[in-house]
Amino acid sequence: MSNRLAEETSPYLLQHAGNPVDWRPWGEESLSLARSTQRPILLSIGYSSCHWCHVMERESFQDAEIAETMNRLFVNVKVDREERPDVDGIYMRAVQALTGRGGWPLTVFLTPEGEPFYGGTYYPPEPRHGMPSFPQVLEAVHRAWEDRRDEVLTAASEIRELLEESTLRPTGGRADEDSEGAEVNEGWLAQAAGSLLQRLEPVHGGFGRAPKFPQPVVVQFLLDHHGFTGEQAALDAAVLTLRKMGRGGLRDHLGGGFHRYSVDDRWLVPHFEKMLYDNALLAGTYLRAFLVTGDPEFEHVCREVLGNLLDDFQAPDGGFYTARDADSEGEEGLFYLWSAQEVDKLLGEEDGRLFRRCYDVSPGGNFEGRNILHLPHDLDRIADEENLTPTELDCRLERSRRTLERARKEREPPLRDEKVLAGWNALAIRSLAEAGASLDEPRYLQAAVRAADRILTVLRPGERLLHQLTNGEARIPGFLEDVAGLGNALLTLHETTLESRWLELAIELDEEVERRFRDPELNLLFDAPADGESLVVRPREPMDNPVPSGTSLAAELRLRLGRLLGDTERVEAARRLVRREGHGAERAPSGFGRLLSVAARLAHAPVEVAVVGPRDDPGTRALLREAHRRFLPGGVITGQEGAETCPVPTPLLAGRGMVGGRPAAYVCRRFACRAPVTTPEALGEELDRLASHPS
Predict the structure, then answer these.
(1) 42 - beta bridge partners?
(2) Phi and psi angles of residue 546, each rounded to the nearest 5 degrees, phi first
(3) Do domains 189-328+417-603 and 608-691 have the same CATH topology?
(4) Residue 617 CB: number of other CB atoms within 10 A?
(5) Percent of the chain surpassing pLDDT 70
(6) Which residues contact 304 (CB under 8 A, 6 or more apart)?
(7) Maximum distance among all Cα pairs of the chain, rounded to whole angstroms
């Protein structure tokens, strides 16, 4: 017998539609029921690829006795955190305030008015490792509600007031602190970078102790900081982290792509789910590292990640799906694990021996009796010891990987969540466009354009962006990270194609940010639109978690457009956003990677490149390729067909034309341009000259 979730479209909610729990979706009907019956709400938040969400469902939500207790005592509400990041953000912050930690599944108890008063994450069905059982928690919360309701309501009111206060004040700041925030300058940025470097784990990279998350936007900030200042320690930290992650079990060495995080400190044992946002951001990070260092290992990883996005995440219509589960056949990671016997049987004795040596495959296994593929040893040294050249070893390993990958495709794959989220698609579009231009790979750029066209068609039917498409249905208004994220992605498409339509759309989305998400009285950006659903508080979270925050994406979009259009008001608006959250970035820089990158770009004048010439002309394309072939942190790239064809005025293009009938490139800083050049070689020389003298 199905519960009320059977009418939903979210894959996560549908996974619970057969539970004996009388689950209801989030909404006014559920809140009204709680008010009319005066029962508290049991709010459970998770997502389809969450391993521990599946565990709690099997242990508790499928248990008839536990379900009977839940149905008798509570109004039970299920939320997909990817579908409703606003609801998740509010109640995650509440649980973190109550317990000091958070995670999914998120279990929160609310008053009928939606105010949280108790919560946690995963609860086992019986007491375990010092944790109370879920039935014990249910009974204890019920007794408190029945016997000490005044105390519960007072506590709930205090938590709501705490949420309101923390939402309105600067992150990391006090309520009485200077509203102007931190002074953003090179010294402030050096301090933030230094704080991150102090937290660097010097052997395996990454920041802090296990569990370790990739934190690609933090690594991107270190690369930007190096690009602007030349600080070698920032580059070394980024290179170490990316190299160790790419060689570890965190990466899928057969299919490409990264898992969500590592439970150990050496990136060996992952939580095996794959998320679109992780892989979109990591592809862009590895691309930047390749452009900075020229190391082909980073280019290889970037290409493999993007290949996985195109092969496994892209829908036939061009959009990108959300995630792959960790579990298959009821076991976490089973799809990705190997025995030594399987490897030898598929590859033969000699190739199997070589592969097992390189990828640490042993009879005893490195994970619960099986093996996670990773590269713990130096392959050049192995090649030397095996009397092979590095190229010969690479060819043999590549052949073996393809053989194992073909065999793996015969296994039952983990479930794929086929929601299409605007904000996460924006991250994929941006990385594909950047890689397509920088690596001269047309299929990446074509995929980015297809995805952008699809998102705009199905999720922006009018002048408002919607959040997601699920089973052909789109109804939730877009959040700040969706609108600002897509604006940035379309601006990147303009930079990589020179098509003016992408620039015009990016400007429209920037205006939507101001219109729907800024509170003019408080002069704050909120994550949910002003005309969205009324919640216990209006959510606002400037910290990155787990994608770049909406605030940081909005600041980035304002700055990029301001620099391109010569709009000082947009630039200053970006500066105000960064300054307001500056104290938070000082105290917890790992939570503000994207905002720190925006701050670095505010502190340095960018290199600007204007390309003038027909977009389909080989000369124009050659100049554009050369402009994207380098790491230009905060760089501005634009172009037009001729001297009078750009529909969006910018000082970079004013009066610029072709030279002698040939496409030309103008290299500038602060809109002061050097003499135009007409060959990629000359453009490269100009860019190298400016890049070697940071502003």
Answers:
(1) 76, 109
(2) -90, -5
(3) no
(4) 14
(5) 97
(6) 256, 257
(7) 87
Per-residue pLDDT, averaged over 609-625, amounts to 95
* Coil, helix or strand at residue 573: helix
Of 1.50.10.10, 3.30.2160.10, 3.40.50.2300, 1.20.120.1200, the CATH number of 189-328+417-603 is 1.50.10.10
Sign of the four-CA dihedral 416, 418, 421, 427: positive
Q: Is the pTM of this model over 0.70?
A: yes
Token digits for 120? Answer: 């946690």
Q: How confident is the model at residue 643 (pLDDT cuts 50, 70, 90)?
A: low
Structure tokens, 443: 């299929």
Would you say domain 4-168 falls under CATH 3.40.920.10? no
Render pLDDT for 539-583 as a digit per residue (tens, 0 to 9). 999 999 889 999 999 999 999 999 999 999 999 999 999 999 988
pLDDT at 176: 40
* Integer-rounded Cα radius of gyration of the chain: 26
Q: How far apart are CA 285 and CA 258, in angstroms?
A: 13
Strand partners, 669: 672
For residues 332-369, one letter each, b for 16 or more C-beta atoms within 10 angstroms of the residue's C-beta and e for the rest, the string is: bbbbbbbebebbbebbeeebbbbbbebbbbeeebbeee
In this structure, how many other beta carbons lie within 10 angstroms of the beta carbon of residue 605?
Answer: 18
Helix residue ranges per DSSP H, 589-637: 593-603, 618-628
Domain boundaries, the chain: 4-168, 189-328+417-603, 334-413, 608-691
Check pLDDT > 50 for residue 647: yes
Q: If you write DSSP's letter for every residue of 440-478 in order, what string do you get?
A: T-HHHHHHHHHHHHHHHHHH-SSSS-BSEEBTTB--SBP
pLDDT tens string 178-187: 456 677 788 9
State the Cα–Cα distance between residues 541 and 566, nearest whole angstrom: 29
Give Cα separations from 574 to 11, 211, 516, 570, 571 (angstroms).
Answer: 37, 33, 17, 6, 5
Helix (H, G, I), strand (E, B) or coil at 668: strand
pLDDT greater than 70 at residue 175: no
Q: Where are the beta strands (DSSP E) in 166-295?
A: 261-262, 270-271, 274-275
Q: Residue 653: pLDDT band by 50, 70, 90 thresholds?
A: very high
Domain 608-691 has CATH 3.40.30: yes
Local confidence band at 127 (pLDDT 50, 70, 90 cut-offs): very high
What percentage of the chain carries pLDDT values higher than 90? 88
Report residue 118 as tokens: 């108790």
| Token representation of residue 448 | 């980015």
- The mean predicted confidence, pLDDT, of the chain is 94
The residue assigned the tokens 């309105």 is: 168
C-alpha dist (Å) from residue 599 to 224, 302, 576, 632, 669: 10, 26, 10, 15, 18
